[in-house]
Please model this.
Amino acid sequence: MHNLQLYNNANMVPDMSNDEKLSHILVKVTNMEASHSTLIREISNISATVRTVNQRVDTMNTCIDAHSRMMKLLTYKSIDNEARCRRNNLIFRGIGENSPKSDVFCVGLIQDFISQELCCDAERVCIDRAHRLGQRGYWVRGTYTRPIIVKFRDYDDVEMMLTQSYRLKGNAVRYTQRFPARDCRSEKTPFTRI
Model:
């Protein structure tokens, strides 16, 4: 396009001598070289900016990967901590609610269950707290039962309870340990130390 403009401008002035035409062409070429060098500088500036942006993106990706690993580690530690806090807990299912106020008697119910069903010394077992789980439902003829969660003071009591569970064969009452819901899923994927 510039060549066409040069050619047209040179032919538009027929009275010019060849030297004047050449000097006119030289001025145009010099202007084009100046704009060309300006464009080259702008392209090099853009290229440097793109390199800087790429470096920053790489740095951000590295940081995101590090944060993802830290979040995974914190998740596992949180699950482990919650499991440690719950290791003294047992959930009892199948113990009937004799009256609408049975929440008050949960500790007594569990102590009676330990002494009668498991044939253990209930006085030796120290229960920190016990309560029913869930919202109170419709209590009809003693058929509705909510599970009871029991927190024992010592883990030895929990182990003793777990070893005595064979005595409940044929009984409707069952008890299990209470672990976090995510604990089972975390055991499926191997833990890697960072």
Remarks:
- The chain is about 55% helix and 10% strand.
- The longest strand covers residues 127-132.
- Strands lie at 89-93, 127-132, 148-152, 174-177.
